[in-house]
Amino acid sequence: MQETNILLVEDDRMIIENLTEFLKTEGFQVWSADGQEKAMKILRNQHFDLILLDITLAQGNGYSTCTQIKSHYEIPIIFLTALDDEFSVVTGLDMGADDYISKPFRPRELVSRMRTVLRRNSKTPNFLSCREIRIDPVKGIVTKRGEEIFLSALEYRLLLVFFQHRGMVMSRSMLLEEIWDIAGEYVNDNTLTVYIKRLRDKIEDNPQEPKIIKTVRGLGYKMEE
């Protein structure tokens, strides 16, 4: 069963510790950040199913953080805040938040709301992600830090093959077998080298020192887990 990843953006250390511990007992995997900059950095390297976002943060605020997240990612957000006036509620929801719960809240009520939001968004495609690279397999779209990157059909297929075999060393012959049906007789050992280079040029920050698709000397290639 796939784990549900939660990002808790909150600057109260006590709430972070207590809520993280409780959510873990409910089967969630929890990451935390105390401000907007740290939250965006974590989002660039990890896929999340839901974000719990406080309005008052150590750096930035919940509203600006929500806007920043929504401009780059399609992730449901629940606001956590001590502000329970109507204006705060409406502002949060108008900015794209999926729900809003005021402090102090009962942990089990929060979990119930989280599961409701997750069910509501369950029709969202299961994205594939590694570091800052993300694939929407339904739309066939690849993004890097939220910006779309354009791959040829064979480059896209090659990237999918690596995602489908994450952590596994893929020999050149295995890769050729996987992508043969896309380009047929035009795929050979030399063209494979060219396409791996082109793919790295598009997805790696430094293609000369790849972090996503690594070379395993004498064996082949491997995408990090």
From TrEMBL:
<dbReference type="InterPro" id="IPR036388">
    <property type="entry name" value="WH-like_DNA-bd_sf"/>
</dbReference>
<dbReference type="InterPro" id="IPR011006">
    <property type="entry name" value="CheY-like_superfamily"/>
</dbReference>
<keyword id="KW-0238">DNA-binding</keyword>
<keyword id="KW-0804">Transcription</keyword>
<dbReference type="GO" id="GO:0032993">
    <property type="term" value="C:protein-DNA complex"/>
</dbReference>
<feature type="domain" description="OmpR/PhoB-type">
    <location>
        <begin position="125"/>
        <end position="225"/>
    </location>
</feature>
<dbReference type="GO" id="GO:0006355">
    <property type="term" value="P:regulation of DNA-templated transcription"/>
</dbReference>
<feature type="modified residue" description="4-aspartylphosphate">
    <location>
        <position position="54"/>
    </location>
</feature>
<dbReference type="GO" id="GO:0005829">
    <property type="term" value="C:cytosol"/>
</dbReference>
<feature type="DNA-binding region" description="OmpR/PhoB-type">
    <location>
        <begin position="125"/>
        <end position="225"/>
    </location>
</feature>
<keyword id="KW-0597">Phosphoprotein</keyword>
<dbReference type="GO" id="GO:0000976">
    <property type="term" value="F:transcription cis-regulatory region binding"/>
</dbReference>
<feature type="domain" description="Response regulatory">
    <location>
        <begin position="5"/>
        <end position="118"/>
    </location>
</feature>
<dbReference type="InterPro" id="IPR001789">
    <property type="entry name" value="Sig_transdc_resp-reg_receiver"/>
</dbReference>
<comment type="function">
    <text>May play the central regulatory role in sporulation. It may be an element of the effector pathway responsible for the activation of sporulation genes in response to nutritional stress. Spo0A may act in concert with spo0H (a sigma factor) to control the expression of some genes that are critical to the sporulation process.</text>
</comment>
<dbReference type="Pfam" id="PF00486">
    <property type="entry name" value="Trans_reg_C"/>
</dbReference>
<dbReference type="Pfam" id="PF00072">
    <property type="entry name" value="Response_reg"/>
</dbReference>
<keyword id="KW-0805">Transcription regulation</keyword>
<dbReference type="InterPro" id="IPR001867">
    <property type="entry name" value="OmpR/PhoB-type_DNA-bd"/>
</dbReference>
<dbReference type="GO" id="GO:0000156">
    <property type="term" value="F:phosphorelay response regulator activity"/>
</dbReference>
<dbReference type="InterPro" id="IPR039420">
    <property type="entry name" value="WalR-like"/>
</dbReference>
<protein>
    <recommendedName>
        <fullName>Stage 0 sporulation protein A homolog</fullName>
    </recommendedName>
</protein>
